[in-house]
Design a protein that fits this description.
17% strand; flavoprotein; PAS domain-containing protein; photoreceptor activity; single chain; Beta-Lactamase; PAC; 8 strands; 294 residues; two-stranded antiparallel sheet
Length: 294
Amino acid sequence: MEGEERRLAASLTARYSEWVLEELDELRGSFLLTDPAMPGHPIVYASRGLAALTGYPRRELLGRNARLFQGAATDRAAVSGVREAVRAQRAHQVAILNYRRDGSPHWVLLHLAPVFHAADGRVLHFLAVQVPIAPASPPRRHPGRPAPLAACREEARGEEELPCASHVGEVFVDIDKRGLEAEELRIASGCDKEMALSTANNIFSTLNRYSKLTGLVVCERRCDSVGIPALSSSLNLSLGRIKQSFVLTDRHLPDMPIVYASDAFLSLTGYSREEILGCNCRFLNGPDKSAYLS
């Protein structure tokens, strides 16, 4: 078992240094990291917040597939959306019904995002952040006015006296039972979505910082300079004489990637030119930036 734990931990420490686990432990939020290159796509890191949210001890989560959170009432369409996002290697957000270790259901906003190798665009890990979704507040009712359902019950009981309406009561019984057994769909609020994005940004910032220690620099979006047309030598020479910090982007290419970065910009940000070219400027957004800046 200890050998298996070391193998799972090496998925992170070999790419982000030995200290990354301690740093991740200090981050707030409920999240996990998986390694798609390992058999079974296992969980290789689980936060303290995730253990508290789900009731699973952290050691019990390591090595298992994240499917263990799904249950009988988990929406198949939501699961299919997550599976498709993993195949397409893209970010995805969805409200989904998960299950705790004790079998109790709970709604979470799942924020899924791939972690890319900056140099070649390979997916090294998937990050999954879970933000609990609170139940909606009950609608306000005016004092003395009967609730809609109560009024319907009274009407049903009155109609039971009519021979042709004897089935109405049975319909209400079926509805009542179904309401008790089914989990009501919950909608993630804007605050939930911002919290998920903020947590993910903090994690990416940590992974990026520690990956520089091993030279296997990672980023949140695929930073691939393949297909970026090279600037002419004369233009490169002219741009190189400019001492200011700046980048150039090409709005005619998909996602408007960076096609040139000045030396002063590289010195200011600490990125290499290989990391910059092909990226959208959004990757410079820090962990505290609003989702609306993305």
